[in-house]
Amino acid sequence: MRVLCVGDVCSPAGCNAALDMIPALKREYGIDFTIVNGENSAEGNGVTPQSANMIFAAGADIITGGNHSFRRKEVYEFLDSNSFILRPDNIDFEFGRGYAFCDTGKYQIAVINLSGQVYLERMKARNAFEAAERLVSQAKSDGARFIFVDFHAEATSEKRAMGFFLDGRVSAVFGTHTHIQTADEQILPEGTGYITDLGMTGVIDSVLGVKKEIIINRLKSGGSEKFIQADGKCMLNGCVFDIDEKSGLAKSVKRIYKEQ
User: Fold this and answer.
1) Given 68, 152, 177, 179, which residue is catalytic?
2) Would you call 179 a catalytic residue per the annotation?
3) Contact status, residue 15 vs residue 51, Cβ threshold 8 Å
4) pLDDT digits (tens, 9 = 90+) for 57-67
5) Segment (H or E) for 50
6) Which domain holds residue 140?
7) Which pTM value belongs to this model?
8) Reduced to 3 states, what is the DSSP secondary structure of residue 159?
9) Number of domains forming the structure of the chain
10) What is the Cα–Cα distance from 125 to 122, expressed in whole angstroms?
C-alpha cells in the first residue's frame, strides 16, 4: 500500500497548488490513500470548511490539523460533522477529534493527529506520548492494520522521540508545523517510516507562507505588521510511504518536493 502525506497547505495559493499537483502525484506513484495537513489553508490563518473542501477535492482522504485548527469559528461544526478532518487529540476542545478509522474495503487505516508541547506551551497540550499510547491501542482494537501519526510539533527532538517511541507499532510517523521540509526520511530500526517534517505546500518565495519582507522587518527592527500571505509560484512538500500489506510496516520512504 502506498500512502501520500502532504505538508502544511498554506493559504488559498497552497490549496490551488494542492488541487493542481496532488492528483498527478497520486497517478505517478500509484497512491492508495492520501493524508494532508490543512491547518493553515484558509485566507489569513486557520482552516475553514471552504479551504478543507478544496483539499478534499484535491484528493485528500484525511485532513490533519495543528495549533491553528481552532482559529476560525466557522470550522467548529465542520470538525464535528466530518469525521475525516482532524485536529490534535491531546488539546482539549469541545469540537472535533484527533483520531479517524477508515475502512476502504481493501485497507483498514487509522490516522492519529497529535500536538507537541515543547515551544507550544500556550496550546496547553496534554502529554502526546500518553495520547499516542491510548490511540494506537484504540486503532489496533478497531482492526487497523495500517496506522499513521501526524505529530504537529515545533521541536525536532520531540518529533524524533515520538518516532522511536512508536517504532514497530505504527506504519509511519511524520512531523508537521515548521513548514520546512527535513531531509531525514528513513525506516526506523523496527520498521516504522519516519520524517521529522513534511514541509509546506505553498508559495516558495516566502517565509513559512508569509510575505518575506514582513518577517524580515519583524526580526530586524521589531516591526508589528500584520502577517500577509505571499503570492507566487508554489511548491508541494510531502512523503510517499510504501507499506507492507502483511506487516503494516514501511518498505520504503520517498521524500517529495514538487514545484508548479
Assistant:
1) 68
2) no
3) yes
4) 999 999 999 99
5) helix 49-58
6) 2-200+234-259
7) 0.96
8) helix
9) 1
10) 8
